[in-house]
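Internal tracking record. Fields below are filled automatically when a chain is submitted to the structure queue. Please do not edit lines marked as system-generated. If the sequence contains nonstandard residues, flag them in the REMARKS field before resubmitting.
Queue: standard
Priority: normal
Entity type: single polypeptide chain
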Amino acid sequence: MGQGDREALRRDARGARSPFLRLADGAVGLLDWSGRLIAVSSLAVLFVTLLLNVVLRYAFGSGIAWAYEIHALLLPWMVAGGVVIAAARGRNITVTLLPDMAGAVTAKLLAVTAQIAVVAICVGVLQSSQPILRASQFQTLSTLGIKQVWGYASLVYAFGGMGLIAALTVLRLIGGADAGPRDPASASLS
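SYSTEM-GENERATED OUTPUT FOLLOWS
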């Protein structure tokens, strides 16, 4: 199958992307938005709670007792949201020297291999974290009275989201999507 044939599979007569690639892009976009919502709301609640606690401590001599425990629940969710955002945008830490030096086909093969490795790692982390999740169902934060499983559940969201994005990326690459920017300057955030 030649390059023109692959291009025809990706696009219809009007030049639009295939429905499969649009669906995969939409799923990744939805995960990106969920990560944004989780990260921003976690950060906002943490900031407001800690600010209110400081104001109350200085104004009245005592603050909110549970403000010292809220970070145990929300900080992992904020990080998990950031992990999913980075994975959805392809901005997680990566070394691109070899793909940048290789041709387009080799770069795509390397990208597929790397994404399959990410899926395998995510599945491994999710499986190995099950005992921790089960044990955390019996741990309660003393002041809030909330089970710590709610904080540890961020592991499932982060690695599940990252694994799903990697699996969708593999399918998108096999379906004809590009492996990424070939110009390292355009991909750099610095």
